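pasting input
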Amino acid sequence: MAHHRLTFNQYLILAFVSVSVPLGDAALSRGMTSLPSISISHPLTLIGAVFTPWIALGIALLIGYFASYLTALSWADLTFVMPATALGNVFVALLAHYWLHENISCMRWMGIVMITVGVAFVAHGPANTTPLANAVIAPEELDAKEAGR
Amino acid sequence: MISGVLAQASFWKAAGIIATVVVTSSTGEVLTAAAMKSMGDLDDIRAKSGLGGAIKAVVTSPLFMGGIFFMAVAFFSLLFALNHMNLSLVGPAAASLTLVTNTVAAQLFLHEKVDRRRWTAAVLVCVGVYFLAH
């Protein structure tokens, strides 16, 4: 398997990683702000919070995220997966603007452009720069072969 | 005077909570990435040993279990942070700072080739996330 060019399914996995995190965080925030203030001297109260509906939904989304994230890390670098999945922030902002008709300030538009350009930068390069444990061919050898074509 | 001291204490408390989320999250992610790199492409493992084999390969890795431990600490730190601060502060601050610490850690510990292109991407996304929150 070549580690430089991603397949359609691998792009789908990256897309799910992107979208599930902001949605999961929003569900956790909704759940935690509806609870009374939790003191640092009673940390076990946090365990009880896990069984409330919004927190449970947030956790379900984050479990889905984690499974996809692990799969992505098995064929791509951490420094590739992180910026590539940051596109989820842009997705949420655009959804808020076009679906919920929220106002997006000039600064936020700048943020959207910067994240999109950053993702384009990293997506244009190789997904993996280190040899995988069960890889038949190392990335350096793949580079040499591709350069020789 | 008193309100100034209280504001400063509240700032350091917020910075401490966010720093805990960032450090534990970065440690967890780097350990998990190291575990996944050491076992190879999960799709290949699943093709050879089935889904059960792939799950077994993941959960029996000590590096992965270490990563899970730190991610669990990061998760409960995040819950604690969300209980005291707004998502609009905690989310972007933790996300953008974790991006920078992960990039440094990936270069140092995972030996990833973080070239100028990846550093540019990391900085653009980091600043972009910050702008998006304002």
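fyi Chain A touches chain B through 55 residues (CB under 8 Å).
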